[in-house]
Amino acid sequence: MNAPIPAVAGVSDREVEAFLVREARLLDDRKFEEWMALFVPEGYYWAPARIGQASPRDEVSLIFDDREFMQNRIRRLRHPKVYGQQPASRAVRQVSNVVIDERDAATGEIEVRSVFFMFEHRPMLPAPLQRVFAGEYRHRLRPDGESFRMVWKKALLANCDSSFEPIFLYF
Question: Member of which family (predicted)?
Fold first, then answer.
C-alpha cells in the first residue's frame, strides 16, 4: 500500500475528503446536474465490469459515461415514464479511507483512492429491491479555485463481475 503523499501546495487529505463527501451527498440527494458540473468538460465516469479491466474502450463496462452520456442518463432519470425509477430509488453513500496517491507536478492534478459503500432502496411493487454496492473509488482531481473538478472518476466494485438487476444510479 502506498503511503499518503504529504500535502503539497495547500492540498490536504482532509480537503480532498470533504470534496468526496460533498460529491457523494449530491448523488444521495439526486442533484445529478450539480454532480455532473463537478466534472471538467472532457471528464468521464467509469465502472469496470471486471477486476483488472485496463480500459473502458476495449471491453464492456458496467458504466462508461462521458458528458453527453451523463446528460442522457440524468435526463432519463428525470423523465416521468422511466418506470424502473417510479418511485425513485433512494441511496446513501459512505466514503472513507481517503488517500492522495499521486500528484502531477506539471498540472497540479492529484489521483485519489477511497473506499465506498452505497445502499440503494428501490421501493418497487410488489416487493422493494434493496442492494449494497461496495468497492474503491479512484478520482483524478484538478484544483479549481478553493475546490476541485473531476477529470475522471472510476468506481471499482468489489463484485463488479456479478450479475445485477438494471443499474440506474451512479455508484
Answer: Belongs to the bacterial ring-hydroxylating dioxygenase beta subunit family.
Q: In degrees rounded to 5, what are phi and psi of residue 55?
A: -150, 140
Helix (H) or strand (E) holding 14: helix 13-28
In terms of residues, how long is the chain?
171
DSSP bridge partners of 65: 45
Residue with cell string 465502472: 47
Output DSSP code: residue 11.
B
Q: What is the pLDDT of residues 43-75, one digit of tens each?
A: 999 999 999 999 999 999 999 999 999 999 999
Q: What's the Cα-to-Cα distance from 79 to each of 22, 32, 44, 76, rounded to whole Å? A: 25, 13, 22, 5
Q: Which residue type occupies 111?
A: E
Domains of the chain: 13-157 (3.10.450.50)
CA–CA distance from 115 to each of 17, 145, 152, 170 (Å)?
A: 11, 26, 16, 15
Q: What's the predicted TM-score (pTM) here?
A: 0.90
Longest dimension (CA), the chain: 55
CA distance 39 to 13: 20
